[in-house]
Design a protein that fits this description.
This protein is α/β, with parallel strands linked by helices. The chain has helices at residues 11-17, 20-36, 110-129, 146-156, 169-183, 193-197, 240-244, 253-259, 261-268, 281-286, 307-324; strands spanning 5-9, 39-40, 45-48, 55-63, 70-78, 90-98, 104-109, 136-140, 161-165, 186-189, 202-205, 224-227, 246-250, 277-280, 298-302, 328-331. It has 2 domains: 2-113 and 307-331, ornithine cyclodeaminase, domain 1 (2-Layer Sandwich), CATH 3.30.1780; 130-302, 3-Layer(aba) Sandwich (Rossmann fold). The chain contains 11 helices and 16 strands. Strands 1, 2, 3, 4, 5, 6, 7 and 16 form an 8-stranded mixed beta sheet that branches. It has an 8-stranded parallel beta sheet with strand order 10-9-8-11-12-15-13-14, with helices on both faces. A hairpin with a 6-residue loop joins strand 3 (45-48) and strand 4. The chain is globular and about 65 Å long.
């Protein structure tokens, strides 16, 4: 029976059905729902594996209300050491259920959804906070989020030149070559993070660093930073000076105050208070807070990644898959016997 079928969606399916420009629009709706209260979003549950830096995480959410709501969760393993292996550091699935009977509608590859939606949110933040004439992009990190971030920022700003830095010079060179071929844009490899950042209009930190790789003293007046890589209270990519001098915005205030080392460590030092978080991206979208006040403001978006982003992404993918016939259909049960 078709009503019992669940759609399995591979990474290839996800990439085909969730182009970056569409995902930015989907993320706008998801983040509006966070701020206006039309979503349910518990803090993520993370179970550490004894004696290792590895973890197992569950991120549930409800997007929307009533019979039109979407229920779902992302279930992933987080193995930081995979950076030196053929495997992604984050591996898992995103689940989508209907809100009428609780039927499992879809199971999709989490790695591809995460890479696209994380980058799309950075693109949205860049649209809301970066100067209109931003042309120079710095990418600190050359992992799986690097090319999607370049694509996302290019969706919202006319980027003419990209600077790439990574602790692995080989990976930085590989990224630069791929970016030149895919986007036909000038891409240079910087010998240091400082040289990548100085004078850049938009900076994306997408590393696995636990201690700062970006200093506030390097930021040019008017720069915008998307701080993406660190997502636990004890890790940060930005030093305290960078946070202090910036107008700080979050994907979700509650998550930032519970999980973001980029904010929590400066707060523990007494350098900032909770009031330093000026608002969420949803507030900027609603026009209830102001982002950039003048041309020379340094703006900062702290990204943690939210389950509503995953669920909204899969809802969009599932809708398109039903129309195109993409994915593999399986029956996993769900009807009572008899």
């Amino acid at each position: 029976m078709k009503e019992l079928e669940t759609l399995l969606l591979s990474g290839h399916d996800v990439r085909a059905l969730l182009p970056m420009n569409e995902c930015i629009t989907v993320m706008e709706g998801a983040l509006r729902s966070v701020t206006d209260g039309s979503s349910i979003l518990p803090l993520r549950t993370v179970m550490k594996l004894d004696g290792t830096p590895n973890a197992f995480a569950a991120m549930p959410a409800v997007v929307g209300k009533g019979s039109g709501a979407s229920l779902g969760a992302k279930i992933i393993t987080v193995f930081p050491g995979n950076d030196a292996t053929p495997f992604d550091a984050h591996i898992g699935v995103v689940l989508l259920f209907d809100a009428e009977h609780g039927k499992l509608l879809a199971i999709a590859d989490a790695s591809s959804i995460t890479a696209i939606r994380t980058s799309a949110v950075s693109g949205l933040a860049t649209r809301l906070l970066a100067r209109e004439d931003a042309h120079e992009l710095a990418l600190l990190g050359a992992g799986v989020l690097s090319l999607p971030h370049l694509e996302a920022v290019r969706c919202v700003r006319d980027i003419k030149r990209v600077r790439v830095w990574s602790r692995s010079g080989e990976r930085a060179n590989e990224l630069a070559a791929r970016a030149r071929k895919q986007f036909e844009i000038e891409v240079v490899v910087s010998p240091s993070a400082r040289e990548a950042v100085e004078g850049a209009d938009v900076i994306c930190t997408i590393t696995g660093a636990r201690t700062p790789i970006l200093e506030g003293a390097w930021l040019a007046p008017g720069a915008h930073v998307n701080a993406v890589g660190a997502s636990i209270p004890t890790a940060r990519e930005l030093d305290t000076a960078a946070v202090v001098r910036a107008r700080l915005f979050a994907d979700r205030r509650e998550s930032t105050m519970a999980e973001a080392g980029d904010f929590l460590i400066p707060r523990s030092e007494g350098a900032v208070t909770d009031a330093h978080i000026l608002g969420e991206l949803g507030d900027l979208l609603a026009g209830t807070v102001k982002g950039r006040l003048n041309r020379d403001d340094v703006t900062l978006f702290k990204s943690l990644g939210l389950a509503v982003e995953d669920v909204a992404s899969l809802r969009h993918i599932h809708t398109k898959a039903l129309k195109t016939g993409a994915g593999t259909r399986v029956s996993l049960g769900g009807l009572r016997d008899g």
